[in-house]
Queue: 2 jobs
Job 1
Amino acid sequence: MNAPVNPKKLIKGGLHDWEVVIGMEIHAQVTSRSKLFSGASTAFGAEPNDNVSLVDAAMPGMLPVINAECVAQAVRTGLGLKAQINLRSVFDRKNYFYPDLPQGYQISQYKDPIVGAGEVLVDLPDGEAITVGIERLHLEQDAGKSLHDQAPNLSFVDLNRSGVALMEIVSRPDLRSSEEAKAYVTKLRTILRYLGTCDGDMEKGSLRADVNVSVRRPGDPLGTRCEIKNVNSIRFIGQAIETEARRQIAIIEDGGSISQETRLFDPGKGETRSMRSKEEAHDYRYFPDPDLLPLEFDQAYVDGLAAGLPELPDAKKARFVADFGLSAYDAGVLVAERSSADYYEAVARGRDGKAAANWVINELFGRLNKEGLNIEASPVSAGQLGSIIDLIGAGTISGKIAKDLFEIVWSEGGDPHAVVEARGMKQVTDTGAIETAVDQIIAQNPDKVAQAKEKPTLLGWFVGQTMKATGGKANPAAVNALLKAKLGIE
Amino acid sequence: MSELNELTLAEARDGLRARTFSARELTQAHIAAVEKARALNAFILETPERALAQAEVSDAKIAAGEGRPLEGLPLGIKDLFCTHGVTTTAASKILGGFEPHYESAVTANLWRDGAVMLGKLNLDEFAMGSSNETSAFGDVVSPWRRQVDGVVSEARIVPGGSSGGSAAAVAARLCLGATATDTGGSIRQPAAFTGTVGIKPTYGRCSRWGTVAFASSLDQAGPIARTVRDCAILLGSMAGPDARDTTCADLPVPDFEAAISRGVKGLTIGIPKEYRVEGMPAEIQRLWDQGADWLRAAGATIREISLPNTRHALPAYYIVAPAEASSNLARYDGVRYGLRVPAGDIVGLYEKTRAAGFGREVRRRIMIGTYVLSAGYYDAYYVRAQKIRTLIKRDFEAAYADGVDAILTPATPSSAFGIGEMASADPVEMYLNDVFTVTVNMAGLPGIAVPAGLDGQGLPLGLQLIGRPFDEETLFAAAQTIEDAAGRMTLPKPWWA
Amino acid sequence: MSVDAQTVRRIAHLARIAVSEEEVGPLQGELNAILAFVEQLGAVDVEGVEPMTSVTPMAMKKREDAVTDGGRAREIVANAPETEDHYFLVPKVIE
Ligand SMILES: [Mg+2]
Ligand SMILES: [Zn+2]
């Protein structure tokens, strides 16, 4: 936390440079079929109050029973964050009244969370890496949803989300810029997706961030923070931090002071504003939920879950660098999604890893981006791309032809070997055939031949003509060698 | 044939099996008794059609030789148990005309075993009270009357609470038995006040699923009936594991009825000296000594024991129970069911609905509970009370580890009082009714109240036996010994009919 | 510890129970009587004592992750004082 201040990250105020200090509480929806304490479905987009059990509607006498899979998911996530797993944790009631909170309390974990301190390694775009401390992760229920635009004086309450399991992941105030904050959320989302514990779909609300922002003069103690609630996209997280930091700096430089409060980011207006309605009477009267016993499990249970974890992005990246000779940057791009990394690995296995990375990152990702497709929907399979690379490696096709081949496979499919065969795309390495073509061109262009002796750059023109004459299939090295010899260029 | 509703549950069961009478006849006798007893106000809702329909089914089952354990036996259901399609009120206005689309685990077990429902019984609002004077549906009147100088007084007496409707209905022979719940004494105290038998089983013996919650860590369902055997039969059906209640024990249900004939020979019964409270009426002390003598005569060893934290139980209870209640009752907010008092904004709607919907005692307890959980007070009150609970439980564990099999105490510090007599008392005086019973809830133990005699005014007094966790069998055996020695309680003649 | 009238009002608001001015005084008296009664617990030595979390020691039961409930919106809103299209209706809530 007391790392030396990086001057590049400071914000210039009217009077001074300011350091922004950011901590985050991420609410990540646990991937599970049913809710944390009831058997109702977690599926998105159901009819109003259809994914609601008697428990979720807080009918009299209804009791919560915990979903074992949600517990396992929280432990897996804790392991993925290299965090302390607490073998005993306690569910508490957080009491407050709100129409989307049917019980009048949220079941959460307050004093004794299931996961304690951990960390996340975050790579920044400029190549720097920072370690962000995780304070804790706890399980809790989501609230329902209120619609305010259905009638002038009424809100419509739908409890479909009520009781869905959330993991609240609380970071330490270790972030120092909006860039770092965005990179942190991106990385956390990558880890959750690798683990399969949260789909990370921010549009559907599966991942929401509460962002705590404060500013200070470098070297000063922490300033008063404001909490920006429920920011639901990575871009907005960046904007909200910038906006809020500048608001606070302006106030302080004006001689004012920051009052601790909850704020809301309005992306349309590009401003944060105070949420006074939520401010009132913050006395949650936490106490252990008497309907639930403490959550206890043994180390063997944790070890079993640890054994079943997939390889995580940091480990995978290190392995790609070591085993495939990739740059840290390329490896980072490839591991950002587990599906891309898997695709890459299928292509690279038994082949030149760097060539494979080039093809995946430059050709495939470029083309997917252009079409707005994700890797799962790629028309070119890893096997097909591997074959294309094999054909280049074997000298069967040239790099240039390979791009044409990729295009054909992309739009028409097929086994690349068969396509090359069927369309006569094979590279010509038979020097006899190339020589015939070269002789013909030399014979037809005596003036160019004469000039070439003084101007060796004309070689390129001869190469082009030869390739044209051979339909692009001549081996470029062979063409070069032959032309040099016949034109007498050194 | 004597009136069918005068039979015990076991006698009625045997009569049905022997085809001496039909379930329909038995049910009709009870429906008639209920109708004639409206002066007692024991029922919030009578369900005679449903009772008769169930009796028809029972008669068919019996005819087919498929009679179940409680086949055709008419019962009353405390209106704290949610019953599918039958209005459930918790004796509160706030539930409005709430009609559950589900059946509580305990009542579902009773219907599974063939029992018949006569209706929903009155209680203190949300089970908060010791006299059944806090119900939104009016006071329940005990079938008992005082004798003053040999003359029967017409002054109305409380049946105790919160299961006052259950106790009154059973004592008045309006039903063969009744469901009840006990958070601080709400089964045992009314049973003692009405000369009936009531058992609060070990916490976790009966599922709490579908029973309106008062204080989750203390609430337990149990039966009230006219004999120890009848209680044993009913508890055998009510109890059992339930995956829907995390705090419900995954233990098989023992044959409680078989346990009543075990006797007490060789058992060690503890007499806790701390229950000899200052100002305890001499009659209570005499009865307590009498109970010990009966058990000794039946072969038990009587030993004085110490439960030093007993005196902290009641104040600690009045922190823990209201705290849990304040949270459990937050769901009554006028949004999803029950009463709603309209208001322009949501906070106004909550505040008006809850002010109008909850009675005075419930509001008071919610306020106390809210206060003791609020910022700055939580550790001093709630956490401390839960620590004291640990101490209370340790006291019992030490006694049991020392070879005590069960503990004998008075059930209540006095006999029943008159309706309205405590109206001017401060809440704490009323709470003292539960001084002998709350420790049992605080420690999660089983406790049974069994009638043992009458006081000078001709009102019943009861003794309480406290057992080891999940050892209700020993309680049934010891209670049967007392019932045998004391003789079955003679219940009042129906002056109300 | 004893509560004053202002605290009674604050607690009533936290509990979302409307309290009229006439009720404040009597409530204050009742609450203080109860608080005075529980005051004696302050003298109990609880050093090193764990607060009770479960009265019967057992492992918490867990559910399999399966959808076993839902699809009953009509029942869920059946008892609601005000409802439309299977939504619960409340006075407009301003965020
Ligand atoms: Mg939270
Ligand atoms: Zn229904």
Job 2
Amino acid sequence: MAFLVAGLLLLTELVHSVWLVRVPVWGQIPDPAIPLIIAISFRRPDWGPVVGLGVGLLQDLLFGGSLGLFALSKLIVGHGAGVLGRTVLVDQPLLPWIVTALATVLQQVILVIVLAVTDLLPVSFGAFGQPLLAQVGLNLLAVWPAFAATRLLLRAPRAAGPRERFHVI
Amino acid sequence: MSGRRRTIFFLVMLLAVLVLLTGQVRGEDRRSLGPLGTGVLTALAPLQTVMARVADSLSRSWQLYTEIGRLRVENARLREEVQRLTREVTRLRETAQAARRLETLLAFKLQTPYRVVAARVVGRDPASWFATIVVDRGSADGVVRNSAVVTAEGAVGRVIETTPFTARVLLLSDPRSAVGVILQHSREIGVVEGNGQGDLQIKYLSRASAVPPGDIVITSGQGGVFPRGIVVGRLQTLHAAASGAVFREGTVRAAVDLGRLEEVLILLPEGGPRH
């Protein structure tokens, strides 16, 4: 099962780096890894940080930036999603979309801070304007497929409380 | 995993990433893959290549599809443009031909000693019983009855009626038309009449005349309509004189195509202003 999840993550990042980069929308490219990390973390909260770190490192390798840049932001996103998966009722219908949107914003904040501190790339507050809105919108489009794929791969839910149900997606 | 262990595990990973990132940033290129990173990228390269080829193929197909649609629209637009240009060419050809005709008429007008006015043919006899045409010049322009009508090629006919702005012209081919002529080379005199079928007949040629075929027939100036020297046509055939007949007859091919007149010149009487 872990191999299947790893394979799914690898395939997602290959699609991201080869196909999705050819079709920018509103100048932005969707990041399907974020909703996928959240979907996996909701079902396997302990996997959240590891999945986030692994996907982040893969993105660092494929995208040509400094190693650790996306690994840091995805690690934090994965850990946060895992915490949510353990503490919050995940049967809220809008929860996946809300968490995806917040995670996208969080990643952008982390990236801007790291880039500003390390002086890797020039950044401006414009990164939080229309580009961020476009990024959030595009990532939200990937929520349904990410959660559906995760449900297929991770059929047996984690040990859940009586009130938790995964009938959101 | 207990909560405390999870937190420690996360903090350890966070520290490792920060160390990695710091090492990268301090490096010369700000990116150092190491053997593991290089190995991963090498392993993924074939997959990336295959996926890129698939994407290129799809992109080309999509471009071809959209190109077909664009070409279809472009094709329709160009067809319409071709039709428009064809109409324009036809119109310009017509204009050029009219210009050539008018140029010829103008040249004739400038070199003739007579007072002339140019006129456009605006009507024909619809019943085709009579060989007449209507032109767009009339008494207001100085046109009078029996004014000679010519073109640069030769005689056309005479004015038989006028209104202030139009005039009716009796063509040479009309049976009622008769013009005194002379054959240019043999100097034989005769009369050219219309036969009602679009042809001209020459009559009253001397029985003994030795007229070569093809002789040019010009107006003799007798009759008071046409001045002397205007080409009527060319002698086509000369019939043998009937037994006991005094005169011979023949057919004349008109110099002017009387069935395709578009512009003519009307010779005005002496004494009025030159047009």
